[in-house]
Amino acid sequence: MAARAHTDTALVRPATRVFDMTGRPIRGWILVDSSVLAEDDALGRWVDEGHGFAASLVPQ
Description:
It is a single chain. By secondary structure, the chain is mainly alpha-helical. It has one domain. Helix content is 43%, strand content 10%. It is built from two helices and two strands; from the N terminus they run αββα. It has helices at residues 3-11, 40-56, and strands at residues 16-18, 30-32. The chain is globular, with a radius of gyration of 12 Å. It starts with a helix and ends with a helix. 0% of the residues are buried. The mean pLDDT is 90.
């Protein structure tokens, strides 16, 4: 799945938004509100998903 598709899929999940700390959104980066990460299982799923995506990238 392409990076854009991963981003779009993640952004439909609860308490997510595009990473934007300076008024300039960073494409492909997502913030997940801590309220949905309180349970270890939920946090683990996000970490596993991020790790899997990063591992799929071509080294530069």
